[in-house]
Design goal:
With 369 residues, this protein is an alpha+beta fold. It contains 8 helices and 15 strands. The protein has a 5-stranded mixed sheet with strand order 10-12-13-15-14, covered by helices on one side. A hairpin with a 2-residue loop joins strand 12 and strand 13. The chain starts with 15 loop residues before the first helix and ends in a 9-residue tail after the last strand.
Amino acid sequence: MNDAFFRNRLFADVGTDTLRSVAIREMDFKTNDLIVREGAPGNSLLLVGTGKVQISKAGRQGQEEVLSVLEPNDFFGEFAILDHGPRSATAIALQPSLIGEIDRAALDLLMESAPRVLPINFTKVVVERLRSTNARFIDELLRTERLTLLGTMLSSIVHDLKNPMAAIVSSVSYLQQKAPDEFTQSAAAIIRGAADRMVLLTEELLDFARGTAHLRPTWTTADRILELLNGEILEQVRLCPIDIKIDLRTSDQFLIDEGRMTRCLANIIKNAREALKERGEISLIFAPRDQGLLISVADNGPGIPEVIRGCVFDPFVTSQKRGGTGLGLSIAKSCVDAHGGKIWFDTATRAGTTFYVWLPRQASAPTAQ
């Protein structure tokens, strides 16, 4: 057995001679490699030697819901080896990872060699995870109730907004026809844009509460998204003593819902600005990656508090922000998921945070006529 597995929590107080007597299969995985898939046959226990492993399960609309992130010296796959059933969750390597696989025969041999220690270690971890699952279930039940209430409230709000919004848009159109001077046209365009955004924002919240997403994709470029971000939030950030660095590395076209993706990125930028306490640096990079678009938003702030790092994309999770709803990153993730993309982050205490959004191209861009 590789020395990397000796410190595993399963083997606490088990002698090294006993561990060396058992051969296990060692496997190396690259970042984002699939280790096991939910529903696949499983008859082995898996040890995390190095790296990080994400455990997830299919949730609403088939989207993967992250259950936990396992660090080195942890293990997974205990249910399959106990009941010989299929894998109950999917495991993906978040970093280059060394994984050890112990089959049932090897585990039985270890149990016989350390009968007073290994069964207790195994049982303690399983019980700990069951308690955690129960707590997560209650939390999820409460979140679902809050989302249901939010959806009911928003349905009423959207219904009530339609008439006044229609009156505003109608009045703006009349104003544009009767007062064609440049100032009035500019003011009318601002009013119409604000009214349209109000309706779209409430519709997005309603979609999120219902677990749906109605995209309006168009062919666009990173430069166009940046232009929309300037109007949405970057101009406001520039009023603060915060440096904004922008790096555009692609002029390709992508099939994206411009409005939703702009608000998704604006939520991330808003969080970065709040983390910096109005002073620091934010950098945005738009680059081609894996036949898609990779957008990164980095800040040099204090980093995401460790206590919420595993659940930042869950609804109603906040970092003690005044006036925060805890929905910003949840809605951002639902937007990225609806595009068939991925969103993740790197963070460290007092070293800042970087959010990554990867979006597929969806199809080949139309050629110029």
